[in-house]
Amino acid sequence: MEDVETLRADVLAAIAAAGDLDGLEQARVAALGRKGRITELMKGLGAMAPEQRKTAGRALNVLKDEVANAIEARRAALADADLDSRLDEERIDVTLPTRPQPEGRIHPISQTTDEIVAIFGEMGFTVAEGPDIEDDWHNFTALNIPPDHPARQEHDTFYLHGSGTSGHADDDRPVLRTHTSPVQIHVMERTPPPLRIIVPGRAYRCDYDATHTPMFHQVEGLVVDESTHMGHLKGCLTDFCRAYFDVDDLPVRFRPSYFPFTEPSAEMDIGCTREGGKFRIGHGDDWMEILGCGMVNPKVLENCGIDPERYQGFAFGMGIERIAMLKYGIPDLRTFFESDLRWLRHYGFPALQVPSLVGGLDP
Ligand code: PHE
Prior knowledge:
BirA Bifunctional Protein, domain 2; eight-stranded mixed beta sheet; two-stranded antiparallel sheet; alpha+beta
């Protein structure tokens, strides 16, 4: 019989010498496999005399356990070393910028919309949406702009082919919505008050110059409940402007105005200074108009099946491009829609910075 001590020394040396998991497996098979040295010795036990078999059997069993433990320990050590070297090799510096460098930029319209949503979201408003193609009822009539109303002329409406289904006007062609106000009607028709919504979206008017494009964006606001009054309107919009332009004591004023769907109606101005063609938002001797607003006309509530004796509210609408131009110093509206990469790189925003009041509205 092979000398157990020599065998032990050989097998343990082979295990210790195994440089990787494959080598270790070879050492295991050579010792404990079907034809391994220890296995072969165990097979020989049957031919021994009882006394001899007892001693040799015990010695082999002890060796077998010892070898199995040594293999396990070596396996764990190799796995550790393997992990250590991978961690070392694959180490990354998480402070490096991503590669390839981010190419895309967030368009100022999207950025401004996100900023507006962040501010009104903090005040408890939720975002509502409606269709770009409207019927006469939602775009005009329900908003207290009946077919013969002079306000219709000011809207430079794009009419589409076909006829609508609202049955509220003789000329019932579908239109591209001329403002986001029709979404007020959709929301009031289907949701009982109290309501507190903003509606960012596209609007369309047949007009084109440095301050008008046939498609532009507005954000509508609507609050309806039992006790809202003009003071809430003024406070809400003042807070919004101060947060959006990041000027704590931004001067504001409300001028009487007219919209068929609000009564009374107002336009809101913010303070600014102008020198030559340039202006700066903040304290100054001049004013800049930024939005239209008013208390929801009781006729509009009635048109949506809301009892005007019980409910009242306010609404406002502003141009998203306009307030983006004022905040970010963009001189020409038409450039928003030219898809000029140099313009987008210059005026666009990094994609990973989501505007929030806590984290900051803009980079
Ligand atoms: N819809 C108006 C416009 O497009 C803006 C507005 C909305 C005014 C809501 C008052 C209330 O000019």
